[in-house]
Amino acid sequence: MTILKLKILSIDLDQLVNFLIEEITFMYENHSIDMSVLMYEDFNYSTMTTQLDMMILKKEEDRILIDIIAGAGRTGFFLTDNSTEEKYTLKADKILVKYAEEHKLVVERLEQR
Length: 113
Hints:
The chain has about 110 residues and is of the alpha+beta class. It has one domain (about 1-110): Double Stranded RNA Binding Domain. It contains 2 helices and 6 strands. The N and C termini lie close together (about 10 Å).
């Protein structure tokens, strides 16, 4: 599992979520006033495994905290996943940086593992 945590200095959660929905395909969405969960499940034909990609966005005071989580079913003797987890988190990171640049916001990477 690969996890990337970000912080965007903004209070407009709805605008950010709508931007993400336009940029990335999601199969599941759940929204409240201060939080959104966006999920997508993908099947990898080369490894015959599935990967669950998720974004959890939470509005706190003057910022939005974002957890990007990618979990692929590792398979085979070496438990490979073809780096699909990292690819998803990097793709999501680039899209969030694009959003921040378009709206002149500050984005900060808090943690990656």
